[in-house]
Sequence to fold (107 residues):
Amino acid sequence: MSRNHDARIDLEPNELPDMIYGANGQKFVQEFRPRYITATWSVRTLIEIRIWGPRVLQDGSLGKRWLDHRWTTPRATGSVKYTVCHHRSPVGCGRVPSRTVLTRSPL
Fold:
């Protein structure tokens, strides 16, 4: 029996741009402001990545409800597809400078 492992990475304010709530590329209409990332894996298999944050209201303020964007794949299908970005410049992979970031790979 394999055991799942979980990790949480806190984000600095504005480290990631506002995102759209959704799962596996399915977008919904509500925006949220990323505050932390969670990841779940088991024996070298990345099972799920979520980016979490409070909902952004129409007036730009933050709501009480927390939303997430999730990438998940059952272990039997080979895990979440990802690449590791080591760029120190926001130009490199279009992500956060000076931090290793998991970015979704095209399928």
